[in-house]
Specification:
With 155 residues, this protein is an alpha+beta fold. It has a single domain, classed as Roll (ph1033 like fold), CATH 3.10.590. The protein has four helices and six strands. It has a six-stranded mixed β-sheet. The longest helix has 11 residues. It binds a DNA duplex (12 and 12 nucleotides) through loops.
Length: 155
Amino acid sequence: MAAKWLAKSEPSVYSIDDLKKDKKTLWTGVRNYQARNFLRDHWREGDWILFYHSNAEETGIAGLAKVSKSKSPDPTQFDSKSEYFDPKAKRETPIWYAPEVTFVRKFDEVLTLTQIKLEKKLSTMAVLKKGNRLSVQPVTDAEFNRIIEIAGVKL
DNA sequence: GCCAACGTTGGC
DNA sequence: GCCAACGTTGGC
């Protein structure tokens, strides 16, 4: 069965609307080892992604995407002009990974962090843990299904 | 803009 | 390997 993930992005940097417009994108710029391990070792083609807007006017889950290509090295680590450039990374030994992510849909309304906090069935979500800054987090089937239900999405 | 919580760096 | 200093994340 396909795994489920939550991935954070600041909408001022890259929003669900940007993904809708682009249809797909490489999930570049993750520079945290724990998050990197999820991207490199666990994201598989067909996995679901909850697109989370952080540092936003409306913080919360803004839509749905899918992993369309896994295990792809993040090209920005090799680009000396990129803010994500990593001089330690070599093409034959990449450090950072950027799976390709494809737009599925935008929620009619953002499922806000406030709503998530109020929802009993979502109380287990990693994103609610105090001080959890991980930009990539696993989501359980139960959590995912409840979110989809609240958002009124039929898959 | 503030600041708590966390991850990373680097001296020892 | 310890840990203080520093930088970043992200909610508010």
